[in-house]
Write a structure and sequence with these properties.
2 helices, Alpha-D-Glucose-1,6-Bisphosphate, Chain A, domain 4, alpha+beta
């Protein structure tokens, strides 16, 4: 059964800077907890039309990362994703080709938005995913995984506030 998760945050940073940050696959690494020891194993980048000097994984790009599933694990999980949609300074979506889920689609959207009269960017993440292993996977999801997704994105939002310029300003997360 497919599950959905959505969250958003507002950050005191221009849309163009926020989008460029998320479109660069190397920036995924600092958004994951250090104990995961995440790394980009391979990135076959397709530059989006009209790309300037920043690195952006446009539609058709394929990125493979690896990470530890838990702090004590000696094994690494590999995750290969393809950028299926890419609209500069608006949104992009990545879909799992190989990895820990039966299905995974994650769309990142950015919108200029003023909060309390201050110009910034609303970052919205929407994820649709399905666990592997049928009913056993659904049971695992219900027992612990759904909370793990929320914790991962909460961690990510804190990291975004630390990394992006102006990120330490007014913040609103949902």
């Amino acid at each position: 059964m497919r599950q959905t998760f959505a969250t958003s945050q507002w950050i005191l940073c221009p849309v163009e800077v926020v989008f460029a940050f998320f479109a660069n696959p190397q920036n995924l690494i600092p958004l994951m907890p250090r104990w995961r020891k995440a790394r980009v194993e391979e990135a076959r980048i397709v530059a989006p039309p009209g790309a300037d000097t920043c690195i952006a994984a446009g539609a058709g790009s394929i990125v493979t990362i690896s990470f530890r599933p838990n702090p004590l694990s000696p094994i690494r999980l590999r995750w290969e994703a393809k950028i299926s949609e890419f609209v500069p300074n608006d949104h992009f979506c990545d879909e799992q080709m190989r990895g820990p889920f039966a299905y995974w689609k994650h769309c990142h959207q950015v919108r200029a938005e003023s909060l309390y009269g201050v110009a910034g960017t609303r970052i919205t993440d929407e994820v649709v995913y399905e666990m592997k292993m049928g009913p056993a996977g659904e049971l695992a999801h219900g027992l612990f995984f759904s909370g793990q997704v929320a914790r991962l994105f909460a961690f990510r939002q804190v990291q975004v506030e630390k990394i992006l310029p102006g990120g330490g300003g007014i913040s609103q997360r949902t």
